[in-house]
Structures are given as C-alpha cells and as structure tokens.
C-alpha cells in the first residue's frame, strides 16, 4: 500500500501525534526526504507525547515551569513563578490608574465601589474561558491566524448571549439590594460590554501572539486579564460618571 499516512523525520512530535489521532492509526511510519522508511511511532509513544504537551500548555498558562511539582524546592518555585506575578503587578497598577481617573464619581457615589469586583471578575472569567479554548485549539491545529474573522464572529455571538444573561441577572440583583434603577442599568450595561470585550480579547490575543511567534500559552492570560480589568472599569465607571446625579 503506497498511499499511506506518514511523517518526516523532522516532524514535531506533537504534529505526529495529531496525525495519528486524526486517522485513528495504531502506528505511524517515519520516512526520510526520499520516502524511505526510517522507523515507526506507536500509539503508546504518541499518547505520552500528547500528555506531556497538554501538561506543558496548562503549566505555561498558569505561568509556572512544566517540570514543577508540589514538592519542588521553594527557591525553584519562587524563581519560576515570581516573574509572571511581577507582570501581573504592572497590569494591576494599570487598572488602578484607570480607577483613579474616576475618583470624582467614586467620591460622589461610593456605592459604585461595591460592584467593581463584579464587573472585573465576570470579565476576567469570560476572557479566561475563551483564551483557554483558543490556546488549546491552536495547540491542536484547529485554529490558525487565518481563522481570526470566523473565530471572532462566533465568539462575539457567544459573548452577546452570555453578556445579556449575566447583565440582566446582575442588574436585578443590584436593584433588589440598592433599589436604584440607574445603578442597576449601569451595572448591566457594563457587564455586557466587558464580557464582549473580554471574549474578543480571549481570541485575538492568543492569535496575535502566535502571529509574532510567541507561545500563546505562555503570555495570553496576563494580557487578557489586563484588558478585562481596564475595560471593565472604563465601562462601569465611565457610564456611571455620565449619570452620577441619579446614582447618589
């Protein structure tokens, strides 16, 4: 049988695993540039590869080394985790600066501070969900830079549905608690807009990182978190500033 699925000797092991999985093979021939058989990779070999690659992606998205374990030396764990936490400090300060721009609104209606974690938290969850799916799809070869418009179109529809549902529930809860219709509407609108922005960021950032040859699993979450926090506060406090007299 000459028409067989095979991989070249220089093929990445993760790509070889995808070929074996796609065609439900028990073994995969490895050939040289002239098509001569050099060896085989079995299903057992490539299952181990998939497990290693999945673990590596998961660890990178959390900003830790892929070989770190619960009982790794303290110094090793600190060295691997601290740089990414420092990056998060910078993005947190950026969000704090944005909040500072609206100190006038906060001083007039301190109740706004109650709901800021809701807006940032829900946006962060939406962005992380989408980024996780996008990074995994890129790793599996299901998503590429050329798919950006199709992926964004699908995800924005999901974001609008989720944002509308979350916004309505949160607005109802805020009204029951504070009995202020304007505040409830501001919260609902901010949540809707932030979930939409976060979801788009969850698609565009991993694809953007891939386009510039940076591993999306390594840096996507930091940028997504920064965008969701900053945009969430801009939407919530910005809209509230426009109608602050009806929230006081």
3D architecture notes:
- By secondary structure, the protein is mostly helical.
- 73% of the residues lie in helices and 5% in strands.
- It has 8 helices and 3 strands, in the order E-H-E-E-H-H-H-H-H-H-H.
- The protein has a 3-stranded mixed β-sheet.
- Strand 2 and strand 3 form a beta hairpin.
- Helix 2 runs parallel beside helix 8.
- It is elongated and about 80 Å long.
- It starts with 6 loop residues before the first strand and ends in a 6-residue tail after the last helix.
Please render the helix and strand layout as text.
Blueprint: E1 7-8, H1 13-22, E2 27-31, E3 37-42, H2 43-61, H3 74-100, H4 103-108, H5 112-140, H6 148-178, H7 181-211, H8 216-242
Parallel strand pairs: 1-2
Antiparallel strand pairs: 2-3
Task: Estimate percent helicity.
Answer: over 70%
State the separation between the terminal residues, measured CA to CA. 79 Å
Q: DSSP helix count?
A: 8
Structural class determined from secondary elements: mainly alpha
For the largest beta-sheet, the strand count, sense and barrel status come to: 3 strands, mixed
Query: Radius of gyration from the CA trace?
Result: 23 Å
What general outline do the C-alpha atoms trace? elongated
The stretches of 5 or more residues where confidence is low (pLDDT under 50) are none
Proportion of residues in β-strands: 5-15%
SSE string: EHEEHHHHHHH
- Strand order in space, largest sheet: 1-2-3
Write down how many β-strands occur, each being a DSSP E stretch of 2 or more residues.
3
Mean pLDDT: 85
């Amino acid at each position: 049988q000459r028409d067989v699925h095979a991989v070249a000797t220089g093929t990445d092991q993760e790509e070889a695993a995808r070929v074996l999985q796609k065609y439900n093979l028990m073994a995969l021939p490895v050939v040289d540039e002239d098509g001569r058989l050099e060896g085989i990779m079995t299903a057992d070999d490539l299952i181990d590869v998939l497990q290693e690659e999945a673990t590596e992606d998961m660890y990178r998205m959390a900003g830790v080394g892929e070989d770190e374990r619960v009982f790794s030396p303290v110094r090793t764990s600190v060295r691997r985790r601290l740089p990414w936490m420092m990056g998060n400090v910078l993005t947190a300060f950026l969000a704090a600066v944005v909040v500072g721009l609206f100190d006038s609104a906060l001083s007039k209606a301190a109740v706004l501070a109650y709901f800021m974690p809701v807006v940032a938290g829900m946006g962060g969850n939406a962005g992380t969900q989408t980024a996780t799916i996008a990074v995994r799809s890129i790793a599996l070869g299901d998503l590429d830079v050329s798919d950006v418009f199709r992926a964004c179109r699908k995800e924005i529809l999901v974001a609008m549905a989720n944002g509308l549902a979350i916004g309505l529930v949160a607005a109802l809860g805020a009204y029951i608690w504070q009995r202020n219709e304007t505040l409830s509407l501001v919260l609902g609108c901010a949540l809707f807009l932030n979930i939409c922005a976060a979801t788009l960021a969850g698609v565009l950032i991993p694809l953007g990182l891939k386009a510039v040859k940076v591993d999306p699993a390594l840096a996507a979450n930091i940028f997504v978190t920064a965008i969701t926090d900053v945009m969430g506060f801009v939407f919530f406090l910005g809209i509230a500033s426009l109608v602050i007299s009806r929230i006081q």
